[in-house]
Design brief:
Structural class: alpha+beta
Keywords: FAD, Flavoprotein
Radius of gyration: 19 Å
Pfam family, one: FAD_binding_5
Helix content: 25-40%
Order of helices and strands: EHEHEEEHHHHHHHEEEEEEEHHH
Strand content: 15-25%
Strand order of the largest sheet: 4-5-8-6-7
CATH class of one domain: Alpha Beta
Largest sheet: 5 strands, antiparallel
InterPro entries: CO_DH_flav_C, CO_DH_flav_C_dom_sf, Diverse_Substr_Oxidored, FAD-bd_PCMH, FAD-bd_PCMH-like_sf, FAD-bd_PCMH_sub1, FAD-bd_PCMH_sub2, Mopterin_DH_FAD-bd
Number of strands: 12
Organism: Pedobacter metabolipauper
Protein name: Xanthine dehydrogenase YagS FAD-binding subunit
Bound molecules: iron/sulfur cluster
Distance between the termini: 52 Å
Length: 327
């Protein structure tokens, strides 16, 4: 590990100002991913800005919008009464992630900023375009069982590792970001990026910006929502495939549907075409299967992850059936 400067800040503005011109400076809160990255030499910030004392831990309903501060812990959000009652999809997704100890430390902002768990990214002796652009992608011809089937590029086939973010993508969340000029807001589905030719960039946060909070509009999906996570063991494992499904039903007719997948792409993968197909139709196994076939259009596997081409549509059908049966 190299030496680094460590400072603490108590306001968002001071935190953003502290970034200054130092391109390697990083915020640290729970540190549940960043410390691992530093210990393994994947990243070596010259300045760490501790933001734990910045007052961004709020979880509150303001009118029709739930505000969740960037420093609210994953555990606090998952167990919050309003989240459990009005956004059970988010609560389920958070509790499916990591372990109880990690959820007590990890923050919402940090969860959004966590890096892929591709093994080549963490092994500094191996080629990886994300860690070191231009060195190649070890996973394409190597160990790629966990890797993406949607939105891949020649440069990178890694997946985004979060569960929380899959639910937030399905719930039409917005991200509020602060920079030296003020605040800006972007749709959650536009926060993370596909790898393209620049896989080193996971998201659209600029170097001088900080996540302030996430906002989620109230919705009509609470009664019929389900987060399905398929993984190698029952806890403390990343998703092979996950599906966040929310339905608004009238009798058996689908009035509104939201679907997003994890473990399949470099960003939370929203299934907008499948949503459009299902809207207005009956919530039947046949329609769920047709929707899953629509969702798989354009998918591509890389050998060890061929099984995801079957697991993904089956998971979509199962998540929709589970969401439907919640009523
Ligand atoms: Fe690196 Fe992406 Fe290839 Fe993994 S999949 S080795 S993160 S470039």
């Amino acid at each position: 590990m190299i030496n680094f400067q460590y400072i603490r800040t108590t306001t968002s503005k001071a935190a953003v100002d502290s970034l200054g011109k130092d391109k390697t400076a990083k915020f640290i809160a729970g540190g549940t991913n960043l410390v691992d990255l530093m210990k393994r030499g994947v990243t070596a910030p010259e300045k760490l800005i501790d933001i734990n004392n910045v007052p961004l831990k709020q979880i509150e309903l303001k009118g029709n919008i739930l505000h969740i501060g960037a420093l609210a812990t994953n555990a606090a959000v998952a167990e919050h009464a309003v989240v459990k009652q009005r956004f059970p999809l988010l609560s389920q997704a958070l509790n499916a992630g990591a372990s109880a100890q990690l959820r007590n430390m990890a923050t919402v902002g940090g969860n959004m900023m966590q890096r892929t768990r591709c093994g080549y990214f963490y092994d500094i002796t191996m080629p990886c375009n994300k860690r070191e652009p231009g060195t190649g992608c070890g996973a394409k011809e190597g160990y790629n069982r966990m890797h993406a089937i949607f939105g891949t590029s020649e440069a990178c086939i890694a997946v985004h590792p979060s569960d929380m973010c899959i639910a937030l993508a399905a719930l039409d969340a917005q991200v509020v970001i602060m920079n030296p000029k003020g605040e800006r807001k972007i749709s959650f589905v536009d926060f993370h990026r596909l790898p393209g030719a620049t896989p080193e960039k996971d998201n659209n946060l600029q170097a001088n910006e900080m996540i302030i909070r996430v906002e989620i509009p109230l919705n009509t999906l609470a009664e019929n929502s389900y987060y399905l996570k398929v993984r190698d063991r029952a806890s403390y494992a990343f998703a092979l495939v996950s599906v966040a499904a929310g339905l608004e039903l009238k009798s058996n007719r689908i009035i509104k549907v939201r679907l997003a997948m994890g473990g399949v792409a470099h960003k939370p993968w929203r299934l907008t075409e499948a949503e459009a197909f299902l809207t207005g139709k009956d919530a039947t196994e046949v329609n769920f299967k047709l929707a899953s076939e629509i969702a798989l259009k354009g998918s591509k596997s890389f050998g060890q992850n061929n099984f995801k081409l079957k697991l993904a549509p089956n998971s979509i059908i199962e998540a929709l059936n589970q969401a439907k049966s919640k009523a």
